[in-house]
Amino acid sequence: MLVFRYGIALTISAFLAIVPFPAHSDDTAPVIAVLDPNHRGHLVYPPAELEARHGGSAHILCIITEKGQPRSCQTSATAPDFALAAEAYAYSSKFLPAYKDGQPIESHWEDTIPFRTGKTATTPALDHAHTAFPYYPDFANDKDISGRFTVTCQVDMAGIAHDCAASPGPEILRQATLAYFTLARYLPAIKDGQPVSAPYHGTIDWSSDAKNKNDGFQ
Question: Which of 115, 139, 161 is the last residue of a domain?
Answer without folding.
Answer: 115
